[in-house]
Amino acid sequence: MSEARSETRAERIALVDVNSFYVSCERAFDPKLAGIPVVVLSNNDGCVVARSDEAKALGIKTGTPWFQLAAGAARAGLVQRSSNYELYGDMSSRVMQLLGRYALWQEVYSIDESFLGLAGTPVELAAQGAEIRSAVARHTGLPVCVGIGPTKTLAKFANRIAKQNRHLGGVCNLETMEPAVVETIMSRVPVTGLWGVGSRLGAKLAAMGIETVADLKAADPALIRRKFSVILQRTVLELNGTPCIPTEDERADRKQLIFSRSFAAPVTTAAEMRQVMSIYAQQAAARLEREGQLAGVITAYAGTSRFSERAASFPSVTVRLPAPTADPVVLSRAAISALEGQVVEGVAYTKAGVMLTDLSPAGAQPLLDVFVPEQEHRHLGELLGKVTDKYGAASIGLGLGGISASKPEWTMARRYSSPRYTTEWAELPVVKAR
Ligand SMILES: [Mg+2]
């Protein structure tokens, strides 16, 4: 590293990502799970959705049905947990809130990843990365890795290097490494290790002789645009240090959907915030609808600028919905009521967001479900009325609601769930002092 290089101050991008997020949330409250193979299961305890490194080392793949693992679990020392999206959503917003304090700007990218704008010399930036990492560990108990680079693609790549090389201590700033070392690493990582390059695209690139990150970096951007897309062309430019991937306000992957924006003018009243929540929830609902998915848990949050005098004004509430839904009315009602009473009049809120988690495919819902929002079974109400008029009140009912007043969770197997440590008074962790 040359001296001149290390002294240049610049604005850079950091990508902070929680290691094995779901498993790490479980471990934060149950230290017995540290260092052992742990898997988190999907709804109804069906199959593996998250694995600790130790579980990966056992060769367990994402998507493996639990019944295939159950018999051998005890022998392998494998521990399972049901997915606890209330806990994950709440831990996520705590992490994001904390990260925002360190950043010039913040883009929450997924439930456990955020891009941050940082400024400093390469050495200062690496120090900031280390500080962020220890602050998250101290305040939430979650381990993160920090990748720093001049573009989002390089920040993502640096994060991968930080994750895979323990001796780096969880932080990798490409600009504090010798350029020759970075080149060597890039020539060893397959192109599919890059953000946005899946296996199918990887196969097409391999057919053109582009197999590694270094190969793609050296490719002709114009050719890549012609043969593939403007998106992959951006990746090539970003690998060469030119930022060209814009801030995304709306995105989805298999795990969650986030709709988040900064406001042009600050929001200062609860009434305005209700409008914002309603609009964002409807946008998120429209996206769910397009993706053919339903959400089980919603997190609504609002934030102030980092220059705000009232640093504590960052309301964030996570609630489980009565039933999985993509209904815009239900989602906006939930988002509004989540932040009800949390917004302080007169505080200048500069951003807000809605995050939907516990996503499931829309077709998976039973047709006659008492928890389907009212406007979807409007006609059923009419029909039920006619039947009970004729045959009596006990003659027919909607799902469990016809017989008992059980909670919706009742319908779903979550046998191995940890408590909702951070969102339910009755389930708070208890600490005993001697
Ligand atoms: Mg992660």
UniProtKB/TrEMBL annotation:
What InterPro entries does UniProt report for this protein, alphabetically?
Answer: DNA/RNA_pol_sf, DNA_pol_Y-fam_little_finger, DNA_polymerase-Y, DUF4113, PolY_HhH_motif, Rev_trsase/Diguanyl_cyclase, UmuC
**Signal peptide interval:** none
Q: Cross-referenced CDD domains, in alphabetical order?
A: PolY_Pol_V_umuC
Q: Which UniProt keywords apply?
A: DNA damage, DNA repair, SOS mutagenesis, SOS response
* Metal-binding keyword on record: no
Q: Can you tell which superkingdom this protein's organism belongs to?
A: Bacteria
Q: Which GO terms describe its cellular component?
A: cytosol
| Domain named UmuC: residues | 13-198
What Gene Ontology terms for biological process does this UniProt record contain? DNA repair; error-prone translesion synthesis; SOS response
SUPFAM superfamilies, per this entry?
Answer: DNA/RNA polymerases
Q: Which PROSITE patterns match?
A: UMUC (PS50173)
Disulfide bond recorded as keyword: no
Family classification: Belongs to the DNA polymerase type-Y family.
The record's PANTHER family line, in alphabetical order, gives:
DNA REPAIR POLYMERASE UMUC / TRANSFERASE FAMILY MEMBER, PROTEIN UMUC
Q: What does this protein do?
A: Poorly processive, error-prone DNA polymerase involved in untargeted mutagenesis. Copies undamaged DNA at stalled replication forks, which arise in vivo from mismatched or misaligned primer ends. These misaligned primers can be extended by PolIV. Exhibits no 3'-5' exonuclease (proofreading) activity. May be involved in translesional synthesis, in conjunction with the beta clamp from PolIII.
Output this protein's name: DNA polymerase IV
Q: Which gene encodes it?
A: dinB_3
